[in-house]
């Protein structure tokens, strides 16, 4: 069984990842000229902001400090990659969508690992499941947009 501190640290890492996603979606919305994509990315950015707020409240409820407002270094590198890819591809939406999917895959993996560790995360398992389902929803929406790009 993990200590409360270890559990809080895992949730804080998830919070960093969620903040990365929020910023990644914001950056992606700025990188595309298509209104439909901008709307999708902004919707999921707002969703990630809500997830971050929920995670912060849960961390604080358990005695932790959730002072992370921005993503971590890996997230900054991911956003930089989006910027570079965007510049090289002249705002190619397919490249942006692929970058978004990469970030969402990382988030989904993290949620799945925490959910699989049910004993240590039982008191917030529903929060994790609900947020994971939102990640899956975002991925499905991005896949749908990608299939439209091919048409």
Which outline best applies? elongated
Largest sheet: none
Mean pLDDT, all residues: 85
CATH architecture term: Up-down Bundle
Instruction: Please trace the helix and strand order, writing H or E for each element.
Output: HHHHHH
User: If helices are DSSP runs of H or I spanning 4 or more residues, what is the number of helices?
Assistant: 6
Textual characterization of the structure:
The chain has 151 residues and is mainly alpha-helical. The chain has a single domain, classed as Ferritin (Up-down Bundle). It contains six helices and no strands. Helix 1 packs parallel to helix 3. The model has no long low-confidence stretch (mean pLDDT 85).
Which labels suit this protein?
Ferritin, 83% helix, 151 residues, mainly alpha, elongated, 6 helices
Write the layout of secondary structure elements.
Layout: H1 4-31, H2 35-61, H3 73-88, H4 93-116, H5 118-121, H6 125-150
Helix pairs in contact: 1-2, 1-3, 1-4, 2-6, 3-4, 4-6
């Amino acid at each position: 069984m993990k200590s409360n501190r270890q559990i809080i640290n895992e949730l804080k890492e998830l919070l960093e990842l969620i903040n990365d996603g929020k910023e990644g979606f914001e950056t992606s919305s700025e990188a595309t000229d298509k209104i439909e994509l901008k709307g999708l990315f902004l919707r999921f950015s707002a969703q990630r902001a809500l997830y971050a707020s929920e995670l912060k409240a849960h961390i604080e409820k358990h005695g932790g400090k959730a002072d992370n407002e921005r993503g971590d270094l890996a997230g900054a590198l991911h956003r930089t990659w989006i910027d570079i890819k965007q510049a090289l591809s002249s705002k190619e939406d397919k490249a942006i969508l692929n970058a978004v999917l990469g970030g969402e895959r990382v988030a989904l993996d993290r949620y799945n690992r925490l959910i699989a560790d049910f004993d240590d995360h039982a008191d917030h398992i529903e929060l994790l499941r609900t947020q994971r389902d939102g990640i899956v929803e975002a991925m499905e929406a991005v896949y749908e947009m990608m299939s439209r790009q091919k048409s």
